[in-house]
């Protein structure tokens, strides 16, 4: 990231902070971060107009063998679905404010010419 070696948890937290800033620039309103259930974690829950959006953030440094998209495997998708169902059940008041929902993936990768990661949003990565 800037030449310093950070613990993976710290790197993840920094990337998620930057991803939230990126989402805000794209008119997402952050509702909560790091929602944990016994099934797994949702990195970011946000609203975008009338859509409730669950966001998975994936970061891969330069030279990684897989892309951020490729790192989302069947197990992760399954756990994410269960965590989303848990969120929907426990936070039905929030859900009532939205007409629909979707799951987006934020891909963060380390560009060659910049110390900051580049972000891409892939909307609707999971069907319910």
In a few lines, what is going on in this structure?
With 128 residues, this protein is of the alpha+beta class.
User: Would you report the number of β strands?
Assistant: 5
Query: Major sheet, described briefly?
Result: 5 strands, mixed
- Going by CATH, the architecture would be 3-Layer(aba) Sandwich
Strand order of the largest sheet: 1-2-3-4-5
Broad structural category: alpha+beta
Q: Strand portion, in percent?
A: 25-35%
Show unreliable segments: none
Distance between the termini: 35 Å
Indicate the CATH class.
Alpha Beta
Please state the average pLDDT score.
88
| Helix proportion | 25-40%
The name of the CATH topology is Trna Endonuclease, Chain: A, domain 1
Question: How many individual helices?
Answer: 3
Topology (elements, then pairings):
Elements: H1 8-25, E1 29-37, E2 40-48, E3 51-60, H2 74-90, H3 92-95, E4 100-109, E5 118-122
Parallel strand pairs: 3-4
Antiparallel strand pairs: 1-2, 2-3, 4-5
